[in-house]
Structures are given as C-alpha cells and as structure tokens.
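Practice problem. Given the sequence and the SMILES for betaine aldehyde, write out the predicted structure.
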Amino acid sequence: MNLKQQQYINGEWVDAQSGKKRSIINPYNQEVIAEVPEGDEKDARAAIAAAREAFDEGDWSWTPASERGELVTKIGHLIERDQEELAYLESLDTGKTMEESRGDMEDIAGVFRYYGELADKEGGELIDAPVKDSVSKVVREPVGVCGQITPWNYPLLQASWKLAPALAAGNTLVMKPSEITPLTTIKVFELMEEVGIPAGVVNLVLGSGATVGAELSSHDDVDLISFTGGIATGKKIMQSASGNVKNLALELGGKNPNIIFADADFETAVDQALNGVFFHAGQICSAGTRLIVDEAIHDDFVHALVERVKNFKLGSGFEQDTQMGPLISAEHLAKVEAYVEAGVKEGASLVVGGRRPEDPELQQGFFYLPTIFTNCTTDMTVVQEEGFGPVITVEKFRSEKEAVTLANDSIYGLAGGVWTMDIAKAERCAARMRMGTVWINDFNLYFPHAPWGGFKQSGIGRELGRPGLEEYTETKHIFHNLKPEPIHWF
Ligand SMILES: NC(=O)c1ccc[n+]([C@@H]2O[C@H](COP(=O)([O-])OP(=O)(O)OC[C@H]3O[C@@H](n4cnc5c(N)ncnc54)[C@H](O)[C@@H]3O)[C@@H](O)[C@H]2O)c1
Ligand SMILES: C[N+](C)(C)CC=O
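Answer key:
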C-alpha cells in the first residue's frame, strides 16, 4: 500500500512513542490491510504542543486569508487528482462500494474548494456605533488550537468538514480519526504536507477514543473540540471540555423520520426510501430508518419495499454489481443483531431480513440482511434508538398532525423527510419538524453550501456552509475612540 502508515506531528511522520501498532481490518473478509501506530496520551500531548506553538508563535493565523484559501483549494485539487486511490482506500477500510467512495471523494474535494473560496469572504464589518468620532468594527479571528475527532462511517468526508474550515479560518489543529478507519485521513495529511501547510499547523494522532480522544477533549491547550460520533461519547466529551470551557461542536446521531403521504409519487418515494436507509448498509447518521407511512398506502408501500429488498445484491465493495457492503466490525454486527432481537421481543413484526445472509461467499464479512419491521410504535427501542444498520421500522399515520407528532417524538433531531405532491402540506410539515435538515421529496442530500447539524440531542453547532466556518472563529469587537477626552466622573 502506497501510504505512510504513521502519525503526523509537527511536520514529521512518526510512530507512536510507545512503539505500539494496531491492525486495520477489511470488514469484507477480516484481512489485515494496514498496521498503523497506536498513539496514546503522550502522542496527543506532543501534537497539542506543536499545534499550540504553531498558533501562538507561527505565521499561519496571520497569513492573509486569501493565501490560506489558495492552499485549502489546492488540497481539493489534489483530492481530485488522487480520487481513485482515495476511493480505493475508503472502500477497503469501510466496506462501502467503490461507487459510494468515489461519490464521497467528489463531495470532499468540493468541501475543500468551497472553504478555500470562502476563506477571504468573511472579513468582518463596520458598525455604525452610537458614539460620535469613533470607529467600531467587528472582526472574526481563529479560535486557536482545535481538537477534531471523527467516526468510522464517513472517515474522510467527516474529516473534510472539519479540516477545510479550520484551516481557512487560520486555526491549528490535531485530528484523531476513528481508530478502525484511519487510512484516507492519513492520505489527506500527506496531501496537506504536499501543498505546503506549515509544520505544526495540522497534526494527526492515531489511537483510541479513551486515550487520544479523551486527552484532546480535556487538555487545557485545546481551545475548541469538534466531534462527530455517537451521543454517549458526545456527552463524555462535553464534560471533559468543560475544564477550560472549550468551544464545542457536536455532530451526533439520528433516528430520522421519513413521512410518506398517500399523494406522493409512489415509485419515487419507494425508491428513495430504500436509498435513504440501505445506502452504506444503514451506517449513516441521517439514514431514514423511521418510515412513517399514510395508512391509505401503508400495505402497498411495505409490499413494494419488501419486493425490492429481496433482490439486493450484498458483496464486496469492489464488485460492480454490489449494492450493499458489510457492516464495519464484528462488534457493530453484534449490536445490530441485538437491536433487531429487541424489536422482535417488543412486538414489532419482522417482515424481511432479521439475520445474517447464508451465502458462503459472505461468511468472512460482517454482513447483515436488509431488514424491515412493521406494526411499530413509538415506545419501541427500534423506533427510538439509532440502530446504525440496515433496519427500517414502519409506523402508520392517519392525519398530517399525527405524522408530524410521530416524527417529533424522539430525543434526536438530525434530519427528516416528507413526501407529498401538496406543496402547502409539505411546507407546513417541514416548518413543524424539529430537525436540522428537512428534505421535501428527497432524502439524504447534503452539499458544502448548506449547513448541517442537529436539533435536540443530535448535536450542537453546524458544519458546512457559512456557519461551518463561523464555528472556527471567535468574534471580536474593536472600538476606537477617535477623540478621547477625560470624563471627569471621579
Ligand atoms: N451528525 C453527523 O453528522 C454524524 C456523522 C457521522 C456519524 N455520526 C454518528 O457517529 C456514530 C457512529 O460513529 P462511531 O461509532 O465511530 O462513534 P463513537 O462515538 O463511538 O466514536 C467516534 C469517535 O470518537 C472517539 N471516541 C470514543 N470515545 C471517546 C472519548 N471518551 N473521548 C473522546 N473521543 C472518543 C472514537 O475513537 C472515534 O474517533 C453514530 O451515532 C452516527 O450517527 C454523526
Ligand atoms: C453527514 N453524512 C450524511 C455525510 C454522514 C452521516 O453519517
């Protein structure tokens, strides 16, 4: 493999100080695909010190935003140049199909281009102060040293949403990718070195959440922590970040409702409902795993879903006709199995799937069949908790009000969809759905220009769009009295 299997700290490629290594496993066949350093708190502290020095003593945050933007844009160009290699590494590491990985790489290049171009467009503003002979200006400055922690399901995509705006805004950073899927993140650090990001500005530490992640989220020299992952980890990070009152951005999970009205375009809604869940085997924060279907079409809709699901082709992400790859790990497969068992125990009707496939070719991988539950109610675990696997739950509704009430009955508020030909009804529902993103007659679409993030326990803050850059800035007001005089109060 043409990849530096090392950490990147202060402009140097290094092993873990302990010398320990971790094997990276292909989820399709459990083969070892790489051996990478298993960093720990010591490596994290070295990286934080490098990022601190680069921020406090270096030129990066004082470099004109247009120059920083050019470098960020160049990273995007190199991602385009190396798209095939990056997509290969992503599919090898996560099991997703090459088609999905190629799509991710196009999105990622677009994110770097977007923030590269935005870097010098947020120069601040003059305020018309209510004070004679004064200048009052609001400027945006980098936050400082950023800790960035990413999950395994979209390794490089989630990293790009953090790296590109942090750099464009003039911060320095330490990134920790998921310990099980570090390969494309390592590659992008090679690309950042190639474009000439100065030493110490970007640092990569590999290792577990309990060691490296915990150090990043608690260390006093880290000014901001940006985390994408599960709610339980997010809550821990929030607590550790309170020590020095870090800026905090949390992108957490979802159990996302997809409302299908009887007047929706039936074929399109069926097709996109399947895509909204089974893409990447349901391992997507915004997967539309909670279908809420109009009673009038419920039975036909479920029938159409089941007929399609039966023909899904599971297999290697490198085979042309594969539609769904494996789950990420044995541990995650066991979680999905337990989740489905809970659904059965709680009385949901299992209409398809609910087990591992029997195909001999799939026995070495962490595969699980696409699964559909009907007769679901809001009190069930499978309706309330994120399963992060290829599992749909279907609930029925009788009125618009009931559909929205069901959709909002959740601790999550990441994303949701509504399908109808009635424009006013669609807008009413979208306005009442308590989620960071609502799609009307679409699902799971995201792009760099529009903010992404969650209501309720799905998170704090936004990535992408202008808000995604603002996360990485502090706002400063500078007031200049042009005619200072004594006040004679004291
Ligand atoms: N909202 C979004 O945009 C979004 C996007 C992708 C994934 N997700 C969510 O991510 C979750 C799946 O990812 P996961 O299983 O990797 O999540 P996770 O919370 O287990 O791990 C995410 C990252 O946090 C690290 N970590 C674990 N414990 C830590 C600790 N105590 N301190 C600091 N860091 C720690 C892990 O090593 C990993 O790098 C799902 O819940 C999914 O919905 C959300
Ligand atoms: C944010 N997204 C949809 C790219 C990946 C969520 O897991």
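Check your answer against the key. The first strand starts at residue 7 and ends at 9.
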